[in-house]
Amino acid sequence: MTETRSTCPYCGVGCGVIIQSEAGQITGVRGDPQHPANFGRLCTKGSTLHLTAAAPVTRQTRLLQPMLRERRNGAPLPVEWGRALDLAAARFAQAVTDHGPDAVGFYISGQLLTEDYYVFNKLAKGLIGTNNVDTNSRLCMSSAVAGYKMTLGADAPPACYEDVDHADCLFIAGSNTAFAHPVLFRRIEEARAAKPQMKVIVCDPRRTDTAEFADLFLPIQPGTDVMLFHGLLHIMLWEGWTQPEYIAQHTSGFDALKTVVRECTPEQVAQTCGIPKEDLFTAAQWFATSNSTLSLYCQGLNQSSSGTAKNAALVNLHLATAQIGRPGAGPFSLTGQPNAMGGREVGGLANLLSAHRDLANPQHRAEVAALWGVPSVPDKPGKTAVEMFQAAADGEIKALWIACTNPAQSMPDQATVRRALQRAEFVVVQEAFATTTTCEFADLLLPATTWGEKDGTVTNSERRISRVRPAVGKPGGARHDWEIVVEFGRRLEARLPSPPPSPASGRGSPEDPETPGQRRTLFPYATPESIWLEHRESTRGRDLDITGLSYGLLERSPQQWPFAEGAAQGRARLYEDGVFPTADGKARFAAVQYRPLAEARESRYPFSLTTGRLRDQWHGMSRTGTLGRLFGHVPEPVVEMHPQDIARRLLREGDLVHVTSKRGSIVLPVQASAALGVNQAFIAMHWGPEFLAGVSSTGERLAGVNALTTSAYCPTSKQPELKHAAVKILKAELPWTLLAAAWLPGGDALRAREQLKGLMGLFPFASCVPFSNNAPLAQAATRERTGVLLRAAAYEAPPDEVLQRLEVLFGLTGVETLRYADRRRGQRRSVRVRREGADMRLEGLLLAGDTSAEAWIKALLLQEAPAQAYGRLLLSPGAKAPVAVQSKGKQVCSCFGVAAPAIEDHLARCEGSTEQRLASVQDKLRCGTNCGSCVPELKRMVRAIVPLARVA
After folding, report:
1. For labelling alongside 333, which of 183, 262, 773, 872 has CA 20 to 30 A away?
2. What is the mean pLDDT of residues 372-396?
């Protein structure tokens, strides 16, 4: 067995991992105890990385050779790499020649490595001459970028993870850290345990697991963050809790801000935000008077039409109270993706250039042009994410290149996105996974490497650069992302007019010696390190100067920037000297105004729909969605509503409802949740068309939560308001229902899911998810079984051939399958059984037309319990089981497959304090002892049962 140190490909915490591999296959993963981001910890997602890289998964999900679709809606066919890249170069060159450089666009990803990002940026801005290169980081971090630049002068988070240990007050706003950044949350829990006097304030419309951890929870109305922050500053000024000396010496613009916040009285703020005045005063006092206050924030602030204002208003609080530049103090933006920070460093956004240079600055453009050896860099602003797809939908962008992201799931206003992908004349998708919805729109598919195969660097939330190393070789015909861009760039150079060479480092290098009569290339790279060295040179003298770093040093340990030439180490925190990267060296207060949501609730759309993350899933689930065990905690898509709202509308849990915005409508089950306020709803961001689909009464295809979200964006950062949309929620009258589920071998389960996608669009509502028997993680490779569950509903029964196709996909054929059919009533039942001696166990089922027996018959399947006692009841519509079959209940611990009833039963039988009961649960059931992701939920369950025990 070989062990390789690398970095996790999920969130921006940037955890170090040790990959175990054998015979060219990844066989295991564990946290790297030497990595300063996680010290050996991993969350549920990170600890299952090796399972997503297992052969049965990769064989069914990976794109392993270039594929060309000769005609739209036709099947893609294999093509040689040379022909694929020649065709791509010819089509892009033709678009540029016929319509100009801005007729092409590149939409890339925060999951690419820094080296990949760099060559994409150079390809678009240096070779083609367009700034139409943007990234899905626009959807998660661009407001944080704009907020930092507006106030502190540079896109540089000034704090670090170690500050959690030093903080006396934590202010968490718009971040469910317990789910989005679980390993960092473990550190928060430990810091709180070591320092019980630490105060924790959480600001969020939902009472999340993070909010449960708080000393003070501020359940503000969606979108009112700026009003809250201004209100806090108003109180700080009134009470004399600001730091006038720091303000005078190190900041500017405070008088203008005071004029704005003067009107934000406690009464007005309490009314607007929907929180008590007393809590507002408490939050202001803790924030301002604590020895050190650290703010942690993420998408709740960023994904907003006021995203930049929200970020800047929070930074204002730190500047006014001098809570910055000290251990435990500062505004700390948590990065959403593993390398969104690295993409910003190399200028991989439509408004940036390498090393945090601004596209609008002529000197910056000249510096980059000289570095690359091109006459100039275009000055026309590029299209940002929403603008790019709108331009493609309008016919302005003719050729679109998409890499390592799934906009047909993740972009807002999916109707516009799909129109863009259909209208663009040539769409290239460079991707590792063939199963993403965007692949269905590609004219050309290019197979890329992914985690465990890639080589390069990433930067995490605390500005720490880590190495990504390959543990296994490239599978099939896959190539590294940077390699694909370099080869494409060289071919495109030959088809575009050649600019006069400039005596700079970008054209010609030791790896690309000049040959008489041979054109020198902008892409001389033979290794990712050669790209990184050019990127390193671009940072010389900049705020993120890394000229003191090398791959060799990074091989030994991850390092934070800045790390200038001659430095002994990077800088953990910034602005300790009170000097900021602005013209006068002072930070700038931002006198931003409070603006309401892009879509406020109103009579036609009376609910505020928010979106967010699930604990065990990642983005569009192209990787995590291959594992049934990661669906144990939240098994199927639902819309959550407050119990009062459900009761008022005469709904019951599990009823199907239409959730409708101005852009689209989807159907899914409703679930009661006291975590939400009245007139609010919540749907997890992950549910895209791969897992949730339907069709309207007019035949229009409906898909995923982003059929609802708005593309309205912040005017400064251009980040869309994905977090909120105004919706109406009405009961869906779909009398014909279907449930199909079966245990299938790993490869067959994934294959069945892919084939089910085509059938899901036949129903007004359909969801398809994997499930597992939740074997302990350590035994998953040998003991875990995988299944697939399809749920659907319609106005009437579909044709028999549709049900027959479903039976084939779920293995409900052959002599082991029992059947019942009543065509007049539109009912059909099929069950597949497996005999083990005297026992008979359920292996698969299809209930069509009448699913009232779902609870007990599905429990038989999932628990693999003996079923011989039920006989004909398995085929009897509406039959009630003669023997109670209890569901195992909601899964809490994914690592050991522990469900809520088992935990509640143990808690009811043990005594002691909250801490003692928690320790007892962990000791006896082992939940919370591996990755720790379930610890917040365990603590909530303990807290809920302790008061009951005292009453008894």
Report:
1. 262
2. 97
Residue 199 parent element (H or E): strand 199-203
Dist. CA 907–CA 901, nearest whole Å: 10
Q: Tokens 């292996």 appear where?
A: 843
CB 674 within 8 A of CB 207: yes
Task: Tell me how crowded residue 74 is: count the other CB atoms within 10 A of its CB.
Answer: 10
CATH class of the domain defined by 142-333:
alpha beta
Residue 614 has pLDDT above 70, yes or no: yes
Task: Supply the pTM of this predicted model.
Answer: 0.95
- Give 573-606 as a DSSP string: SS-TTS--SSTTS-EE---PPP---SS---SSS-
Q: Does domain 597-732 have CATH number 2.40.40.20?
A: yes
pLDDT confidence band for 791 (50 / 70 / 90): very high
Alpha carbon distance 653, 495 (integer Å): 60
Neighbours of 814 (CB within 10 A): 7
State how far the alpha carbon of 545 is from the alpha carbons of 39, 331, 541, 542, 719, in Å.
26, 21, 6, 5, 27
In this prediction, residue 555 carries a pLDDT of 94
Topology of the domain covering 67-138+340-526: Rossmann fold (3.40.50)
* In this structure, CATH architecture of domain 891-951: Orthogonal Bundle (1.10)
Q: What are phi and psi of 430, to 5 degrees?
A: -100, 110
Query: Phi, psi at residue 609, to the nearest 5°?
Result: -90, 125
Contact indicator for 447, 84 with CB cutoff of 8 Å: no
> Would the pLDDT of 41 be above 80?
yes
Rounded Cα–Cα distance for residues 323 and 158 (Å):
11
Bond into 412 cis (ω within 30): no
DSSP for 605-668, please give it: S-EEEEEE--TT--TT-TTGGG-GGGGSSS-S--EEE-HHHHHHTT--TT-EEEEE-SS-EEEE
Which of these CATH numbers, 3.40.50.12780, 3.40.1280.10, 1.20.58.2140, 3.30.200.210, describes 2-61? Answer: 3.30.200.210
**Residue 743 corresponds to which tokens in the numbers above?**
């245990």
Instruction: Name the band, by pLDDT with cuts 50, 70 and 90, for residue 500.
Output: low
DSSP state, residue 242: S
Quote the CA–CA distance of 239 and 11 in Å, as a whole number. 39
Q: What is the pLDDT of residue 950?
A: 45
Cα end-to-end distance, the chain, whole Å: 55
The span from the CA of 762 to the CA of 512, in Å, is 55
Element (H, E) at 359: none
Residues 6+ apart with CB under 8 A from 671: 638, 639, 640, 641, 653, 654
Quote the CA–CA distance of 618 and 373 in Å, as a whole number.
40
Distance CA 372, CA 376 (A): 9
Each residue's pLDDT tens digit, 830-867? 999 998 888 889 999 999 999 988 989 999 999 988 88
122 pLDDT more than 80: yes
How far apart CA 156 and CA 561 sit, in angstroms, is 9
Handedness of CA 334, 338, 339, 340 (dihedral sign): negative
